Amino acid sequence: AAWEKVSELVPDDMRYRIARNKVEKRCRVPLLLDDAHTLLTGGKFKEAAHVLARAQNLDPKNTKIQATQKQTEQYWTAAELKKSGHKQMECGDYDAAKKSFARAMALNSLDQELASLHEEASAVASHSQEVSSSYAHLLMRAWFQALRAEVVASRQIADQVEAARQAAQEAAEIARLEAEQRANAEQFAAATQIQSLFRGYLGRRQTE
Predict the structure, then answer these.
(1) What is the pLDDT of residues 57-82, one digit of tens each?
(2) Do the beta carbons of residue 95 and residue 125 sit within 8 Å?
(3) Which residues, in sequence order, are CB contacts of 185 under 8 Å at separation 6+?
């Protein structure tokens, strides 16, 4: 408040501004860094980022601020990965959850819960892979059995079609032979009738 009052009295005094900036840099920046660390430890990454932004405005070249900002970004990213891992576990995708927790652990080694979550997801993912492998084997076996049955059925149908074709050919051959026999019988009967008529005609001529 005192600085604001002085600012009203000498608004254009550069010496005042320089002095004020030095005091704020020396006094306020450490306090802001402490606040940021407290928020960071409490998992309030967004609030910590805002406090660090204020500190950086006062001292842009401060390496402690830069390091804390980087740490905040890493912890924030780790927290988001942790949330993603929980959602992936809820959806049953434990392999993806395992990877999310592993990435989060690399960014935030202080979160002890990440290690247990990663262990849990890894165990379930490994078991799921074994079950999936066995299930895939069963599916493949069932598929081969179905394929074999289909091939056998196809062969049976092909045999039935071939048998029907042969039966039709045999029936057609029998019908052709019967037709030929009928035609030969009719021709023989006609020839016999003509011969009989011719003999009768010759007999009548001799009588005359």
Answers:
(1) 888 888 888 898 898 898 889 989 99
(2) yes
(3) none
Neighbours of 75 (CB within 10 A): 20
First to last CA, the chain: 170
Supply φ then ψ for residue 10, to 5 degrees: -130, 70
Q: What is the DSSP string of the chain?
A: -HHHHHHHH-TT-HHHHHHHHHHHHHHHHHHHHHHHHHHHHTT-HHHHHHHHHHHHHH-TT-HHHHHHHHHHHHHHHHHHHHHHHHHHHHTT-HHHHHHHHHHHHHH-TT-HHHHHHHHHHHHHHHHHHHHHHHHHHHHHHHHHHHHHHHHHHHHHHHHHHHHHHHHHHHHHHHHHHHHHHHHHHHHHHHHHHHHHHHHHHHHHHHH-
CA–CA separation, 114 vs 105, rounded Å?
6
Tell me the two tokens of residue 28.
């306020």
Phi then psi dihedrals of residue 12, to 5 deg: -105, 15
Write the pLDDT tens digit of every residue in 41-56.
888 888 988 998 988 8
Contact 91, 65 (CB under 8 A): no
C-alpha to C-alpha distance for 18 and 23, rounded to whole angstroms: 9
Tokens 């000498």 -> residue? 10
